[in-house]
Design goal:
The protein has ten helices and nine strands. By secondary structure, it is of the alpha+beta class. The longest helix has 37 residues, at 179-215. 16% of the residues are buried.
Amino acid sequence: MNFFDLCVTFCRAIGRGIKAVGKLLAQMIRITYRQWWIVLIVIVAAIVLANVYARKENRAYKVETIAVLNGPTLELTEQVYRPLSQPLSAELSETRNLSALLQLSGEDLDGVSGFDLFPVIDCKHDSTMDYVDYRKSSSSSDTTNIRMPNRVCLQFRTKNIEKAPVVANALIAYLNNNPSMQCAFEHKRVIAERKAKFAKDQVEKLDSLTTAFYFQQGQGNQAQAGMWEKGVVLGRREIKLFTGAIYNEIDRYTKLDYDLMYCTAPVVPQNDFFINPHAVNSPVKMSVIALFIGWIIGCIIAAIVEQRKRIYEWLNKR
């Protein structure tokens, strides 16, 4: 079989699949028309159950934030976070359950679930967040959608919005109190302080060189000297000196100082935890899902009712 025959076989298989799906939908529509009362009862029952499940006190909301990683890698943070996303029950381990990990009571954790961690993607390679990979479809070896090494999205679900800040603070404290996270943070803090000090010293050195050049020209030249946007004007001469280098070092020092401002703990939320106002199990969403599921189940029940005699005869065969 050559490549052309393989393509033809593949296209024919797709065509047969589409034809089978269309035939199945046509049969379901015919069954719905013939046994509409059965299908309608099942759909109504499914929608009612969905709205009971999506009642106000049972609605869950996503709570998330973008956090800055100061030292810990994304892999290390995922490893430390894993016990929260896959906690052991109290019967299996009294030291690994969710309440013990977060140091919270059962009342504070009532209705809390779905702890998860998502990588933050930088598509333009400019060290700026572009989007959160909620599907976790990117990989560490991807050169197009690059995972940011110092940004991560923390998320959990809760039915009790009033307790969300308490759980959020406990989550950050759990990550920051981990010994591995603390070790990585202390190393990053020392390096960040050294880099910021070095950049500041470079600015002062370049500025002192410019000042020394100006004051060594003598009184007559000093009177003639003036500043322009890129250096010093000395008589009719325009001397650039180190102004451009000073501007570059100042920009570098500003960025390092900004990073140092966030470098106060292993994990620092870039903003407050945001509560998504759209519930995970909202009534509209659950009703739409229940409509399709109820229709499928209704068609199956209707088909069984229509073929009940054949099914009975088949069951009576020895």
